[in-house]
UniProtKB/TrEMBL annotation:
Residues 185-312 form the Riboflavin kinase domain. InterPro entries: Cyt_trans-like (IPR004821), FAD_synthase (IPR015864), Riboflavin_kinase (IPR023468), Riboflavin_kinase_bac (IPR002606), Riboflavin_kinase_bac/euk (IPR015865), Riboflavin_kinase_dom_sf (IPR023465), Rossmann-like_a/b/a_fold (IPR014729). This is Riboflavin biosynthesis protein. It comes from Lederbergia galactosidilytica. The lineage of its organism: Bacteria, Bacillati, Bacillota, Bacilli, Bacillales. PANTHER family: RIBOFLAVIN KINASE (PTHR22749:SF6), RIBOFLAVIN KINASE/FMN ADENYLYLTRANSFERASE (PTHR22749).
Amino acid sequence: MKVIQLDYSHSYSNSDFPPLVMALGFFDGVHLGHQKVINQAKEIASHNNQKSAVMTFDPHPSVVLGKAQQEVQYITPLQDKIQLMENLNVDYLFIVHFTKEFSQLLPEEFVENYLVHLNVKHAVAGFDFTYGKFGKGNMDTLPIHSEGYFDVTVVPKLENDQEKISSTSIRQFIKDGDIENANQLLGRCFITKGTVIHGKKRGRELGFPTANISTDLTYLLPHTGIYIVKVLVNGKWNQGVCSVGYNPTFHDPEEKQLSIEVYLLNFNQDIYGEFVTVEWHKKIRDEKKFDGIDQLISEIKKDTEEAKEYFSSME
């Protein structure tokens, strides 16, 4: 897959690319609905002996257009999105740098500069895709603005239990800790990535040594609680239990930053400094404050047993 960064004043012309079938969208999560759009583009490309392409945007428009400067947490930060597109066997990925200048393009200017000039012969997008200044361009106007240069396919909404599969609903499920429903709409397990760092080593003192994972702030993180997870370390998946929270049992007034700690089952390697992937499967319970260490240890044992039973049932 060829990855091409596009700035507002890009100088590409249609002679720089083969005929393309382009899937359009922001695609945060690359969920089942997004996959439907991308696979539709791939099928058309294959049928017409053309190349498949995806156009996405970075950062999220709200970062640029929001009234206040804000950070956005993503289901799939850009690097993860690129990897997922690679997994879908897309030929070209165009990443448009979303800026104030770009947001001011008229709908017809967007079509001319970002579709016609890239040799797009067929554009595919979901029914709710918009483009151009104030989002005035939509899937009704796209055939008009194409002026016959390319064809247009509108992909209807994909539903699960009569509810539209959307990044918004997946994001809410993750925020609520409802990982199972989020995974169902994603069509795979939700993942986050990070580096194993030194923590306060409380888990080791309790008999459950944990890996503290420092995660990029651009990741959307699940609600505080205890989760069943898998962790990819040095190319191998390991089963585990993950705590997302503030360690309320220890009454530490400095514990203001959310921590992600994973206890890996049947694992005793030193992995400080390793870059790992956490695959989220299921929430066990909410984070809670215990009256003492013994009660906490007893609860951790229950959590690990539940995780073992979960993975046994998956075999």
